[in-house]
Write a structure and sequence with these properties.
By secondary structure, this protein is of the alpha/beta class. The chain folds into two domains: about 55 residues; about 270 residues, Spore Coat Polysaccharide Biosynthesis Protein SpsA, Chain A (Alpha-Beta Complex), CATH 3.90.550. Helices cover about 45% and strands about 10% of the residues. A six-stranded mixed beta sheet has the order 6-5-4-7-9-8. Strands 1-2-3 form a three-stranded antiparallel beta sheet, with no helix packed on it. It starts with a strand and ends in a 9-residue tail after the last helix. Its EC number is 2.4.1.-.
Length: about 450
Amino acid sequence: MQLHISPSMRSITISSNNGLTDLMKIKVAARHISYRTLFHTILIVAFLLPFVFILTALVTLEGANKCSSFDCFGRRFGPRFLGRVDDSGKLVRDFYKIFNQVITEEIPDGLKLPDSFSQLVAEMKNNQYDAKTFAFSLRAMMEKLEREIRESKASELMNRHFAASSIPKGIHCFSLRLTDEYSSNAHARRQLPSPELLPVLSNNSYHHFVLSTDNILAASVVVTSVVRSSLEPEKVVFHVITDKKTYAGMHSWFALNPVASIIVEVKGIHQFDWLTRENVPVLEAIESHHDFRNYYHGNHIAGANLSNTTPRSFASKLQARSPKYISLLNHLRIYLPELFPDLDKVVFLDDDVVIQRDLSPLWEIDLQGKVNGAIETCKGEDEWVMSKYFKNYFNFSHPLISKHLDPDECAWAYGMNIFDLRAWRKTNIRETYHFWLKELQEGSDLSTF
């Protein structure tokens, strides 16, 4: 930048360093100029020089930045100062438009999906993806990850289900040791209860509990928790029913480890003379029928629509498909009036409950002629209680089921039921139960998924 003042003081010229370009030239009238005016003029020019320098620098860099001088100048001093608008909002709106379009369209066949987001960005740079292709790849990746998460969650629930329904090795060996004790130890074979207490087994002034299980340790927990929570343990009578293979071990446990203050009876299914497969033909059919066995023992994930099933719903269905539901021990509750012909009221407990309060008030409940008193599983605010509906247990594609049952009807908790056996004996519940089981086993796939 050079400043030239003519000898006559009549003109002032501002030029570039090479002297070839005149940036500004000021002429001063000879007759009217004064030294004061000249001083003020030079002062103004000196004030403008920094701005002229900046403008010159922008012109020099114009080729490198590929923008006009005023545009580059605006970038440095802010878009609002020079009236320019930030276009990032427009970019976001364009992305919204593309994403909305991609959601409604099918993902192209053969679209190669990267394994990670960083790989997606790298492929986008290398292959020069347009925005739509990028959006399709991103959507396909997210859907793939969602499927993998659902499948992993389902596998986790499956493993948890199998772990909960199987018998650990320690408990299996525990049962074997007690069975051996029954064969070699006279104390393990002693009569339960002792002969002088046998009349109590049919005395309705006592509180009679029924427990049907082949799990010795679980039976011990249930019995012990009832006794510890009871305000009148001397009035408690437990009827423990088990299968033939577990009977010796179950009898040994309660014979060698008597629970103070209560009366325990241990009986095996084989000890009920009338409870034979000839008298209960439907149970034999259930255990041998291919569709039933495949439904309860087959692959629970195969054919399952995991995309429309929440983990909570899937867990409910797994629990409903537990193999224990085709066990004879599970079906024993339908024969309670015949198993205990002298009793008027019993409380039936599952082997997976722990009693934490006194249950004697249950015998004071007036069922008003109804047979079963239970708790529904679809009401209440306890998030840990699994909601169970009829649709979790029945296949509503079967015309008989869809005609007579409501899929959204709430099931009841099986863990603790109070039965009025007097009212039960006035009904034909057992015959109706046999009829429906026989109807349902004839020619239908039981899958509810």
